[in-house]
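Posting this for the archive.
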Amino acid sequence: MTKCYSQITLPKNLDEAVLYFQQNWTTKELNDFKKRTESNAVIKLHFGTGLWIRNNWVRGKRDTALTNYFHSFGISNPDDISIIILTSLHRKLNNKSVNLDKQVEKCKAYWKPIIECKEKVKVTALLNYNKYKVSDSISIYMPVDENRNAVIYECPDISWKFKDNKDLLIKGQIVRKYYINDTSNVFFTLKITSINRTDIQVLMTPIKVGDNKEFSLRGLKLD
């Protein structure tokens, strides 16, 4: 979509959001969007019109009527909001049922394992934070990607098995324990005493024996 919007009209609900585009898009824009398959149409506009929706209707300090409308269904992620609006527009143009309940269920089903995983990661981080004290020696295990960079996998796919010839093993002594902003956002400062691979960076940062390195405990495998 190439059309520029000279004015921002902030809708209060899904019907008004869909109507906005029906009234402000050209016939050609509406027809081009309508003719595509639903998934292709929504994906194609995710970083165009979808981004415009997120920046002008969802994010920042503005009238919260639209976001409150979606929050009432348990939808708060800006991407989800823009996807539902575009999906509903496509269905409306093709004389199909918007089926908002099903769209909401699909979004919630996507986030459920991620939310549960993040809660588990937070609990494990706190357990490790309380388990160890300053001066304790610990070992940290991290998966290594194809760029020789040690990473922490994101939820919900956090399961992996350590491989001696591939992954990174760091040993060291805890010199500091602390949290940032939230008591569940916990960190160790580790004085590194040994590394099984010297050709690996940690989260894009070089490390070496003798360094004091900060580690967030969220998602970190250690013993």
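The CA atoms of residues 53 and 191 lie 47 Å apart. The first strand starts at residue 137 and ends at 142.
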